[in-house]
Design goal:
2 domains, 204 residues, mainly alpha, binds zinc ion
Length: 204
Amino acid sequence: MECNIIRDLIPLYIDECCSTESADMVKEHIGSCKECKELYEDMKKPSDISSDLPASVKLNRIDMWKASILQSVLLFISFALIIVGVASESVTPYGITNGTWAMSLIIPATGFMLSLANWYFVKLYKSRKTFSVISAVSTLGLIASGYLWALLHYDMVATLFNSAYEIDNVFTLVHFFIGAVLTMLFCITSKILSNQYAKWLGKE
Ligand SMILES: [Zn+2]
C-alpha cells in the first residue's frame, strides 16, 4: 500500500514539486525499499539522457531558424522588387515603354517568389541536389511562362517592330536585358540558396 503512494509521489519528488514532508517520506522509503528505489532510478534517467543531447538538438533548431529566416527574407525581397516594379510602371508615361518595368522587374521577381512554394516540399525530395535543381528549373519555368504570357497579352513583339520611335525601342531593349540578367540571377540564387536551405533542414 505504502509503495503505491510512494510511486505516485516519485515523479513529483524528482521534479521537486512536492512538500518537504512528502519528499522526506519518499527519501526514507526508497532508502529501505529496493523496488521503489529501482523505480526511482529508472524515472530519473530520461532527464539525464536528454540533458546529454542538447548540443546536436540545439544546433538543429538554430539551423531550422536559419532556413526559415532565409525563406522569409527571399519572400520579402522578391515582394519588394514587385512593389518597386509596380511603382516604376505607374510613373512611366503611356507609350511604347509602357509595360517595360513589368517585363524587366515584376515578371522575374514574381516567378522567383512563386518558385519559393517548391521549398515547402523540401522533405519530399530524395536528395538536396534534386531539390536545388528543381528549384532553379521551376524558377526559370515560372519566369519564362510569365514572359510568354506578357508577350502574347501585350503583343510586345509587334509593338516593338512597329514603333516609330527608335529611342523607345532602345529603352525597351534595355529593360529586356535587365529582365534577362535578373532571370539568370534568380535562377542561380535559387540553386545555391535552396541547396543551403535543404542543408540546414538536414537533407542529405
Ligand atoms: Zn516501496
